[in-house]
Each structure stands twice: as C-alpha cells, then as structure tokens.
Amino acid sequence: MKEYLKLPLRFDQFFDKKKLPSCGLADSIYRNLHLLITTVPGENKNDETYGASFWETDYDIHLDNDSRKELIVGNLKKQIALYEKRIHNVEVTVDVKLAVLKTQSADLPRRKIEITVNGIIRKTLEPFRFQTGLFIGPLTLD
C-alpha cells in the first residue's frame, strides 16, 4: 500500500534521517481538503491561487446565507477540481447557521459553516466523504 506524508511535515525528523509520519490515501485526501479549505489564496507562496477564496467575505455581514452557500460551494468545487484530482464525481454541500461558540470566558453567537464533500476515490473506486465545521468571522475550527 502506498504511503503519503502526513502534514504538517516535521523537518527535524527529516534532517535527523528518521522516517517521516505517513498516512493512507483517504487520510491524505482528507488532510489536503482540510488544508485547501483553511488556506486563504496568497498564503501558499509556491502557488498563490491555492486556497479557498470565500474567506474574502468572512466578515461580510450583508451577505445572506444562501449567497454565502453558493459562493462556498462554487469555490470549493473549482479548487477541488484543480488541487485534489484523486477524487471525482465531487458533490459539495454547505450549511450556514447561527451557533454558539463556547469559550472559557463567554458563549459567543457565531456563524457556523458545515461543509461536506462526497466523491469517489479514482484509484480504488471507493466512496469518499469529508466533513468539517468552521466558525467564521474570524475562523475557528469546530
């Protein structure tokens, strides 16, 4: 079975000539999708277009939930087609809702985006499902 490097890379292990942590195909795809969603275009200096451009509207209080969903779905489908070619027949669903973010000091009402990506792994023809939840304005992982 082919192994894929886990992110983030631990360069100290590399320079000490130790084996770098690895993962399987599905986990590698999962990690790439997570990185793609949480990266703002321009953040990756090797490829300025890598990342989710919907973060540009993170603080836009005038953008309604349906428009935000359309923006996220369209952007992610485009980015997945460009940067995650190991899956196909990709379907992206997004739910935007108001939720409470519990912190040590307070319970904060925040907009939460729940993203689901379904597809088929090209190499194995197995179904693939990725889910994540993000609080936006500013980004917080669920």
Please render the helix and strand layout as text.
Blueprint: E1 4-5, H1 11-15, E2 22-23, H2 25-38, H3 65-83, E3 87-102, E4 107-121, E5 127-136, E6 140-141
Antiparallel strand pairs: 1-2, 3-4, 4-5, 5-6
Helix pairs in contact: 2-3
Protein name: Gene 25-like lysozyme
Pfam families: GPW_gp25 (PF04965)
InterPro entries: IraD/Gp25-like
Report on this model:
By secondary structure, this protein is an alpha+beta fold. It has a single domain, classed as Nuclear Transport Factor 2, Chain: A, CATH 3.10.450. 27% of the residues lie in helices and 33% in strands. It has 3 helices and 6 strands. It has helices at residues 11-15, 25-38, 65-83; strands spanning 4-5, 22-23, 87-102, 107-121, 127-136, 140-141. A 4-stranded antiparallel beta sheet has the order 3-4-5-6. The protein has a two-stranded antiparallel ribbon with strand order 1-2. Helix 2 (25-38) crosses helix 3. It is globular and about 50 Å long. The mean pLDDT is 86. This is Gene 25-like lysozyme. InterPro entries: IraD/Gp25-like.
